[in-house]
Amino acid sequence: MIIYLHVEISARELDGKLLLATLAAARGHEVVLSDLEIILKGLLRGYLNPGIYHTKSLTPSKTKIDRHQKIINQGSIITSIDEESGIDKEGYEKFSKTRYSRETIDQSSAIFSWGEEDFETLKKNYKEYSNKIYKTGSPRVDLCKEIFFDYWSNPKLNINKSYVLISSNMKVCSYNSFADRLNVMRENGYFKRSPELFKEEFLLRSNDYLKAMVFIDAIKHISEYNNGYDIIVRPHPTETSDCWKVLLDGIPNVFIEKKGPINPWIKNSFAVMHHGCTSAIEATLSNKPLVTYVPSELKHHPLHNQLTNKLGFLINTKEDLLKKLNHLHDEIKKNHEINKNFYLPLDISKKIYLDNELAAEKMVKIWEKITSKKDFKSINLTKLKFFILKLKINRLVGDTLKLFSSKFKSLGTRKNNQKFPKFNIAEINERVEKFRKILKIESKLECILLADRTIIIRKL
To answer: Is the pLDDT of residue 339 over 70?
Structure first.
């Protein structure tokens, strides 16, 4: 069986999909982790053989529906777990209608849920497809379990002190403009399915600027009066580090760090601070002290009543924020235990399915079940490498023409994919080897780098 794992935002998705790939490869399957271009063009042009195309969402846009139908017509099947998750929002009704439709579910062979709430809501709203919906949990939640504690290497820091991690989810530093975001949502049919979202986006964006100002003020206060620790600000995957450097310029002991997944930054911090951010759940699952900053200035922010703002120590003023962080720092420095008992509120626990069996293991077994009567051919590596070489040559020719043609000069060359940096094969090998040792997998696995954002993982 060939499994195609579409990666969009590597900092968010890559490690969970590497866990899936390791488990699947150990059971004899070939796994391709890649951006959309090579998977889609490879399948549709016959350079990749049919298999399972596992996608990040089933958002019912015309583009995605047409894309999935072409993949199905080619002989592949579609499965999905929504990487946006909805675990930070009250209920799942709205999410189930904006991110799914009968048509996209009909095109799918399996839909994996994060927890009890999305599982039951999807089954209720799409009764005729209930046999396709599976309660598995998410591989991203798997990675917060104690078994993977040693998987997360210490991040390479330019500091020697302990630090508080501040996780940002503000849109003031986004790569794309507000108009770009609205256009994407319009093209994907969000406003047609939920007309109120148009107004909500304006309210969210305007309040995000207020939120940024409040956080910058708090960071200045913490920087000036803290008990000898540093501050690391972690931009959201859709935010630019350069923008945050401008916003925080001149504030001492503040570092902007966006490299890699957030998990190792959480693991090595003495505390995590946030407002309305899903990293709060990851911190809680990792049993890391969590400080939720909910000042009165943000009481009208659309995210103020998010479920994640019910977690951890709730702090209302920058003065109390400083006191709490100083206290946590001093207590942990003395090796005093802060979080003695792991606890998730009911509203959160029903959104996350935690089980002794890994979610990734369940997903691989379901893939095997739904393909048990199918006979998929293996990847023709020579053919695939030829196809990728053709793509590279076409890109090079296209970029060269744009540079030298007056007609296209204003377009410039191809932009870097900020959401998905190029693969480092040495790092990928290291991560897969860690999974193999942690899970006590005896089979030897190989990782083959085919393109900047395409790798194959399979059993030797």
So the answer is: no
